[in-house]
Amino acid sequence: xxxxELIPRWLSLKSKARLGCNILFGLRYIEKGYVGTRLLxxxxxAENIHRSLRSTSTPLAKAEYxxxxxxxxxxxTDEPEELQEFVKMGLRNNPSYNDRMLELxxxxxxxxxxxxxxxxxxxxxxxxxxxxxxxHANERSxxxxxxxxxxxxxxxxxxxxxxxxxxxxxxxxxxxxxxxxDQRIDGVSRRFKAQLGVTE
Length: 200
Fold this sequence. Notes:
Blueprint: H1 3-16, H2 18-29, H3 35-53, H4 62-75, H5 81-90, H6 97-105, H7 110-117, H8 120-135, H9 140-143, H10 148-169, H11 173-179, H12 183-196
Helix pairs in contact: 2-3, 3-6, 3-8, 3-10, 6-8, 7-10, 7-11, 10-12
């Protein structure tokens, strides 16, 4: 893509997903640090980038959600007002973290993503679990003293987010496929897929 065409597109995209991009690029500017902290950072960047780029994404169509919410609320009219308010506030038509990650993985070129992740569902589940464990200080996050799985997850997620940004900029699918053939990315990807049990 011509530089003069790329820069305005990039400035618009960066403005749209500013926080997610800042977190993402901050992970490269300051590469030293605990793997867990950096993994939580890339997981947060992924959620923010999805929210910024796919803000209208919902599990249910808006009309269907409104109908369902009215139906649920009418079923509890005999309950105390604070309980009704609790249910009302708890009902949300937002995608789950896992769904957000799978939608993100559907944005770039399919072949590039499959080459990078191998198993999208496995990657999304692993990232969701790692994020939840780290964010909620679950014991599971500190039981394994080997940082390799977390490091590999961090790196392939970072690479996926770069592919997402490339796709949003209109970078060709060929260039996206070529990007994941980079020696470093390919090496990390192979180790990550082996960890997931994906055979090539």
